[in-house]
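Dear colleague,

Thank you for sharing your sequence with our group. We've completed the structure prediction you requested, and as agreed, I am returning the results in plain text so they can be pasted directly into your records. Please verify that the sequence below matches your submission; if there's any discrepancy, let me know and we will rerun it promptly.
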Amino acid sequence: MLERIRIVLVGTSHPGNIGGTARAMHNMGLADLALVAPRCEPITAETVSRASGADRLVHQAPTFASLEDAVSECTLVVGASARSRTLPWPMTTPRQLGERLPAELAGEESRVALVFGREDSGLTNAEMQRCHAHVHIPTNPDFSSLNLAAAIQVVAYECRLACMEAPEAGDEAAPEPLASHQELEHYFDHLERTLIDIGFHDPAQPRQLMARLRRFTLRARPERMEMNILRGILTATQRQAASSDRQDSSDTPDAGS
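Please find the predicted structure tokens below.
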């Protein structure tokens, strides 16, 4: 299961933190590291020094331009958050996250991404809304700031512990594959276009509509087949709306009538 957990670093500004992350991951048996738009040279002498023998993870880590690209194949995306957000999102602790991993990774196509943001500002609200849930480490409120690698060490430890304690897989039927992040993003784009087409959503006055629909959908954890059904409904809705518009246009009398 640990092989299907990806650690994603977004906008990292210090190469030492990338090396420290690699060391923390290697300590806990994680090997899939991805970098999103790093603000520093990822591999330096300090990276290698802080990795303490785990620099192989950094050398093989792919770099992506966006978070969406880095987690496109993942079926569960969890973003690390050090503060509450304007629109509350499902929140979990590292231990609770670890406890749910065996079930999340039961399917062979399942992939989990744990996303950590910039050292100075963390993840943006838009990036956090791309996550199914947020993980928060309950630190001392009087001194809550954690080094990036230390935060990853805490979360990675809970993941390893939970996977070690998970019962062996039985002969039960494999669960239906969940929709991937990429499939969900295509659905959200399709949903927004449809809501605009039928006059339900005004992009000029969004009123957090799409954010709330995103939160609702991500909380539901739809399967791939369910996602296909929903998109089929959206396509039929768009077709019906277009047909109604053509009918209304044909029923409009000419100006000289």
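Summary note from our side: The chain has a mean pLDDT of 91.

Kind regards,
the structure core
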